[in-house]
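Sample pair:
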Amino acid sequence: MWFKKIFFFLLILLLGWFYTPGFLKLRKCSLSLHHYEKEIKELKIKNKELKKEKELLENDPFTIEKLGRDELDLVKEGEIVYKIR
């Protein structure tokens, strides 16, 4: 009877010995997968925003003018610019 208990205990111990590293690796891969899926989702949103901005910059004169005025300090011909400090 005690032989069966020792055999069962050793079998469980042996299975745990081989199963645990695989389980830990699976858990690590699962966490990595979740991280990468989240990153892909964020990048898809960013990509959609950039495509919209690109479309506006290529086709919308108001956006082009606003960008020129705000970032390049361009003015239309004949305009007078007053800078207030």
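The mean pLDDT is 87.
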